[in-house]
Amino acid sequence: MAQHGRSAAPASPCLAMDSDGDLQYDEDSADDDMVYDNDSGNESSGDEVDFDEHRPGPSTAHEVELAAEDAPFQVLSVQEIVDFMVVEINEVNEVAQLPRTTIRILLNHFNWDKEKLLERLYDTDQEQLFLEAHVVSPHITGTASQAPRVNSRVGAVPTEECEICLTVRPSAEMSGLACGHRFCAACWCEYLTTKVMDDGVGQTISCAAHGCDILVDDETVLRLVSEPRVLARYQHLITNSFVECNRYLCWCPTPDCGYALKVPNPDCRPVTCKCGHKFCFACREAWHDPVRCHLIKRWLKKCDDDSETFNWISANTKECPKCSVTIEKDGGCNHMVCKNQSCRADFCWVCLGSWEPHGSSWYSCNRYDEDEARAARDAQEKSRAVLNRYLFYCNRYMNHMQSLKFENKLYASVKEKMEEMQQHNMSWIEVQFLKKAVDILCSCRVTLMYTYVFAYYLRKNNQSAIFEVREPEGPGAMHLRCSQSIWSGTSLRRTWSTSNRKVQDKYRYCEGRRKALLEHVHEGYERDWWVYND
Amino acid sequence: MRRLQKELLNLTTDPPPGVTVDPEEIGDNLSEWTVSVAGPASSLYEGETFRLNFRFSQKYPFDSPEVVFMRPNIPVHPHIYSNGHICLSILTDDWSPALSVASVCLSITSMLSSCKDKKRPPDDAFYVKTCNKNPKKTRWWYHDDTV
Ligand SMILES: [Zn+2]
Ligand SMILES: [Zn+2]
Ligand SMILES: [Zn+2]
Ligand SMILES: [Zn+2]
Ligand SMILES: [Zn+2]
Ligand SMILES: [Zn+2]
């Protein structure tokens, strides 16, 4: 073979590889139970546990994340979002000599894409641009379309009629946008309040005059509205549209979180919010490496549509051998009549053959091996195989998801162990390996969970072989090994120094396998190895 | 409600052509009006008289009024459903507090004037069966105004 180095057949990073071969699947699940039994006695479980509270100064924990996960991103509070918005406006203001209020509206019109706006400002007809963005061109001086109908006699206070309340007001109380439509302050205030509070419009409130689409700028709103409740909502609407329009920003999807994330490139990549939620910037789902966004969307939708019902269907129903309608067995006898009115086939629940030859043997079937029954069952099996394949992956995915929900419990009980160990002459730093182990356990779970999704959609080819899951050799065995190591480690308190090393060795091994798996999948993406099922 | 009083005064003293309102017919709180609109001269509706029902919320004029034609005489028109609902953008999306009962009546009159073919909207039967009683609850997509 002439090829050296990276050959077409990659080194298998198969997670199941276990040189000791000391664990079987059954043992693993028992071990898993042990972990949670251990927790159930802990009353503080379920609460969020803060490991940082004993931490002396800055973190000393070394990074284990993938390089890509370290790429810079920022978590912004609402105030920081507002500041960022101002920075963007100022940046445009420095180049384009336009009022800031106009720039805000223009930027919003271009979904806060500065480059696009600047390009348009220089390349094309500016007046057309202002028209499109619903602002009055700042180059037209003097009041535009409508001159205020001022009613002034010499010496008298000039007055105007407000078209909304139909009362005559001193001109000083009347105001409007550059379009020249003027209304009294009270009417403006009520108009803006209705728009903000009832219609939920912030960035795109238009002039109150009929048929005028000039947009109300933020300074005007701040000047005419004084109620804090309304201003707060306005501020919220403005920041919300800023975040939603901006390609480089997104809200954290955790309900009521309120932080936004900012990235230099809006690609599929992990970001971690201050609330702790780690998600994909591109699709907003929980971080799903190594699966790509479109497949995770498909998977989640499938799970949504199919969960529960699929399990039940598989156990309690069969398809009518004639019309394939799903049938539920609701009585004791084997004689089934299809509920589909246009079919009404009679068949036997056990052999799926037609009922007629069964005669009156209602409860026992002796025709199981007849050709007709066999053919009916073969057809059934084919459709079941598809379902079973899905169930196989889905169950494993769900199990990991379920286990992750116990993460807090696990952390709580590990925290207890750590405190215990600190009372036995170990320093804070020395016991951190335990938390680290749980961190790695969790990230392994997440990776495995999504690897099942990846494997489910993967079409069989030369490269896909390592993802063919064979229990007990499958990747599922890994995290269990990892957790067992942790627990045997903590129980061997007397010989802690050796178990410490052992636990660390184990988790480093697990983390190494996890990374290798991810790298392998990513390499496959780059080299076009993966082909998907439809 | 001060504004409604002024509108009523203006409408009785200086009504737009073809529009009449009988203050006797309007209750004291002014929240519901009946306005008569004559079919515009030299239109397909010349000689007919229609009655419009206006309902105003507390937030009027910041909230648009609810306007429907009243039975029995509902104009046969491509933007008017047989239950009296009117497909007219100023009654929902394009409402402005600077609009008034008079301007709504004028819009409706001009809608009648420009009609060239007396027929119901194509989705009339379906709409009437399924719509909310309040036309403002309908998510209208506005027909071409030139029809
Ligand atoms: Zn006013
Ligand atoms: Zn205007
Ligand atoms: Zn968050
Ligand atoms: Zn994604
Ligand atoms: Zn059937
Ligand atoms: Zn049988």
TrEMBL record, chain A:
<dbReference type="Pfam" id="PF01485">
    <property type="entry name" value="IBR"/>
</dbReference>
<dbReference type="InterPro" id="IPR002867">
    <property type="entry name" value="IBR_dom"/>
</dbReference>
<dbReference type="GO" id="GO:0061630">
    <property type="term" value="F:ubiquitin protein ligase activity"/>
</dbReference>
<dbReference type="InterPro" id="IPR045840">
    <property type="entry name" value="Ariadne"/>
</dbReference>
<dbReference type="InterPro" id="IPR031127">
    <property type="entry name" value="E3_UB_ligase_RBR"/>
</dbReference>
<feature type="compositionally biased region" description="Acidic residues">
    <location>
        <begin position="19"/>
        <end position="36"/>
    </location>
</feature>
<dbReference type="Pfam" id="PF21235">
    <property type="entry name" value="UBA_ARI1"/>
</dbReference>
<feature type="domain" description="RING-type">
    <location>
        <begin position="158"/>
        <end position="369"/>
    </location>
</feature>
<dbReference type="Pfam" id="PF22191">
    <property type="entry name" value="IBR_1"/>
</dbReference>
<dbReference type="InterPro" id="IPR001841">
    <property type="entry name" value="Znf_RING"/>
</dbReference>
<protein>
    <recommendedName>
        <fullName>RBR-type E3 ubiquitin transferase</fullName>
        <ecNumber>2.3.2.31</ecNumber>
    </recommendedName>
</protein>
<feature type="region of interest" description="Disordered">
    <location>
        <begin position="1"/>
        <end position="60"/>
    </location>
</feature>
<dbReference type="GO" id="GO:0016567">
    <property type="term" value="P:protein ubiquitination"/>
</dbReference>
<feature type="domain" description="RING-type">
    <location>
        <begin position="162"/>
        <end position="210"/>
    </location>
</feature>
<dbReference type="GO" id="GO:0008270">
    <property type="term" value="F:zinc ion binding"/>
</dbReference>
<dbReference type="InterPro" id="IPR044066">
    <property type="entry name" value="TRIAD_supradom"/>
</dbReference>
<keyword id="KW-0863">Zinc-finger</keyword>
<keyword id="KW-0833">Ubl conjugation pathway</keyword>
<keyword id="KW-0808">Transferase</keyword>
<dbReference type="Pfam" id="PF19422">
    <property type="entry name" value="Ariadne"/>
</dbReference>
<keyword id="KW-0677">Repeat</keyword>
<dbReference type="InterPro" id="IPR048962">
    <property type="entry name" value="ARIH1-like_UBL"/>
</dbReference>
TrEMBL record, chain B:
<dbReference type="Pfam" id="PF00179">
    <property type="entry name" value="UQ_con"/>
</dbReference>
<dbReference type="GO" id="GO:0016567">
    <property type="term" value="P:protein ubiquitination"/>
</dbReference>
<dbReference type="InterPro" id="IPR000608">
    <property type="entry name" value="UBC"/>
</dbReference>
<dbReference type="InterPro" id="IPR016135">
    <property type="entry name" value="UBQ-conjugating_enzyme/RWD"/>
</dbReference>
<protein>
    <recommendedName>
        <fullName>N-terminal E2 ubiquitin-conjugating enzyme</fullName>
        <ecNumber>2.3.2.23</ecNumber>
        <ecNumber>2.3.2.25</ecNumber>
    </recommendedName>
</protein>
<dbReference type="InterPro" id="IPR050113">
    <property type="entry name" value="Ub_conjugating_enzyme"/>
</dbReference>
<keyword id="KW-0833">Ubl conjugation pathway</keyword>
<keyword id="KW-0808">Transferase</keyword>
<dbReference type="GO" id="GO:0061631">
    <property type="term" value="F:ubiquitin conjugating enzyme activity"/>
</dbReference>
<feature type="domain" description="UBC core">
    <location>
        <begin position="1"/>
        <end position="147"/>
    </location>
</feature>
